[in-house]
Amino acid sequence: VEPVPKSVAWTEEGALRLLDQTRLPQEEVYIDCKDVDTVCEAIRVLRVRGAPAIGIAAAYGLLLPFRDAPNLRDTYEFLADLDRRAECLVETRPTAVNLAWAINRMCARAHAGEEPDVPALYRRLLSEARDIHAEDAAACRAIADAGLPLIASHPRLLTHCNAGSLAVSELGTALAPIYAAHRNGVQVHVFVDETRPLLQGARLTAWELSRAGVPMTLITDNMAAHLMSRKQIDAVIVGADRVAANGDVANKIGTLGLAVLCQYFGLPFYVACPWSTIDLKIDHGSMIPIEQRSALEVSHIRDVSIAPNGVDVANPAFDVTPADLVTAIITERGIIEAPCKENLATA
Ligand code: MRU
């Protein structure tokens, strides 16, 4: 059993090291980003992906490449440049709120208080990015503990996309309590949706669960209803990209279908996410922007065409599950049970 490598790290040389998730599971390749444009490209094409991981990557990305030139700029120039970088980064992906949340937090820290010199500002911001990173790791550990009893009582799970270690600082959100249960001797079994179009389930979740020795079975996205009808699944657990104040949950396209199935078959539908994914400024899921991605992701698998040339394609990357279909949201503040709207407001 090999530990899962970290998806995001800050190197001693002051670069952002990303595990290139587009190359998994065939190759484990790391890229060192030395400028903000490389980070923006990495987020856009999903070399780094998953709501918390893109937030952490963007926080560090804002610092590139200040380290080489902190003395060359005055504070005013530094802050103007930071705002320009923030704008590029925030435009890369619209749905996961963690991205904007991390960038806003970094910018607020930069503009807060007295204006130190540029090296001091750099140190202040690096320490803020490290805090964002460490707080995410602590949240994932707390989610693992909070969710463990739910997994112990529902050990045969189905998950969608990748809300594991690769999507966060470490451990995961939806996968965190599964790892904890497995470590505690619970006989878990995870059915992993392949997650078309980009196959995060097949490529990433299957890779990290099998490396960790967690028993799992890969299925295509259209098999869930059948398995539920044959009583092979006890619960569904997924991550989230943004949760509205009323408890509506945006997550990878296909999540909504699973929530509807859970209601029909009387199964619990759990969402696990850190508090940084909850957007209390948005009242309702219908206000969450849904990323639309390239048609090529649907008409092709990797570079192989699977559809007639030029066919009309839709490719929304996320859907919104209404709060009514969510049994509970597992966060570092504990388990938020339905009705999520009331319980989120007071958590
Ligand atoms: O497009 P992706 O791969 O970034 O989508 C990721 C998801 O939908 C995850 O479920 C979500 O970000 C939670 S990750 C802990």
Provide keyphrases for this structure:
7-stranded mixed β-sheet; 11 helices; 39% helix; binds 5-S-methyl-1-O-phosphono-5-thio-D-ribulose; 16% strand; 4-stranded mixed β-sheet; single chain; 347 residues
Task: Describe the protein.
- This protein has 11 helices and 16 strands.
- The strands form 4 sheets. Strands 6-5-4-7-10-15-16 form a 7-stranded mixed sheet. It has a 4-stranded mixed sheet with strand order 11-8-9-14, with helices on one face. Strands 1-2-3 form a 3-stranded antiparallel sheet.
- The model has no long low-confidence stretch (mean pLDDT 95).
- With 347 residues, it is α/β, with parallel strands linked by helices.
- The protein starts with 7 loop residues before the first strand and ends with a helix.
- 39% of the residues lie in helices and 16% in strands.
- The longest helix is centred in the middle third of the chain and has 36 residues, at 118-153.
- The protein has helices spanning 36-44, 51-61, 75-90, 97-111, 118-153, 175-183, 200-211, 224-229, 255-265, 296-299, 340-346, and strands at residues 8-10, 16-19, 30-33, 156-159, 189-193, 216-219, 235-238, 242-244, 249-252, 269-272, 278-279, 300-301, 304-305, 318-321, 328-331, 334-337.
- The site of 5-S-methyl-1-O-phosphono-5-thio-D-ribulose has 19 residues, from helix 2 and strand 9.
Rounded to the nearest angstrom, the distance between the terminal CA atoms is 37 Å
Structural class: alpha/beta
Shape assignment: globular
The low-confidence parts are: none
Indicate the percent of residues in helices: 25-40%
Number of strands: 16
